[in-house]
Input
Amino acid sequence: MMSPALKVSELTKDFGGLRAVDKISFQIEQGELVGLIGPNGCGKTTTFNCISGLLGMSSGRVDVLGQDATGMRPDQIQNLGLTRTFQHTWLWREMTVIENLLVPTRYQFAPNMLLALILPGSRKAEKQRVIDAYATLDLLEISHMAHSLASELSGGQSKLVDIGRALMSSPSFLLLDEPVAGVAGPLAERIFQNLRSLTSQKNIGMLVIEHNMDFILRRDIDRIIVMDRGQILMEGTPDEIRGSRRVIEAYLGDTETKE
Ligand SMILES: Nc1ncnc2c1ncn2[C@@H]1O[C@H](COP(=O)(O)OP(=O)(O)O)[C@@H](O)[C@H]1O
Ligand SMILES: [Mg+2]
Output
């Protein structure tokens, strides 16, 4: 039997006296697209930080494709096949879109990276990376922006490039932290459609944080995990979550505390 793409067991994270994540467990299969939602400050990003090795966990265990990733460094976890994006997108602003996808090569600081790569005699693997980068832009429907400077992109376009960059590491599993925050409705919808087709085309698992509950409950995704105050409040299909009083109350509580 195939191992789950990601398995989180009783993950706990304390910041001093604050328990940000409280013994959460869940698992995601390859090819599955799962949403992670919950009120502000409920522990979603901290969960990602622990899974990706950016923060040490206080207790618990994380397995990536059947391998124990507990206590590993971020680069080691990435080598297992797990890649993440951040809530605040960061691109090389003075580089083009295609160059941003190619950055983790040894040509990172060359003045004219693309030219260097297509000259005769350049290494086959590097050429293959360029081909892969264009294919990735195709998949995300942003090929026409390949040679635009990152600084010229809208927030939504930057999000897509960021996802493309994550895909360039050929991940088996992707953690996306609010990939459509600040993105206009129709584009946000398309990004989700593209994520959906990516999971099936490449058979990768994805866990996607989204703050807008109304938005994610209307998307074509397999499952939603709802967090509240560091714990998992509920797990279910979008339909099941939509009908849940507990979930609605958790969000109403969030609104009240902000007022
Ligand atoms: N590095 C940190 N140090 C101390 N407290 C933190 C740190 N990161 C997050 N927190 C706290 O942990 C809780 C969960 O935060 P976070 O995971 O960012 O929530 P979410 O992403 O769900 O909005 C919040 O109370 C936040 O203030
Ligand atoms: Mg967050």
Notes: Confidence is low (pLDDT under 50) at residues 105-111. Residues 92-152 form one domain. The first strand starts at residue 6 and ends at 15.
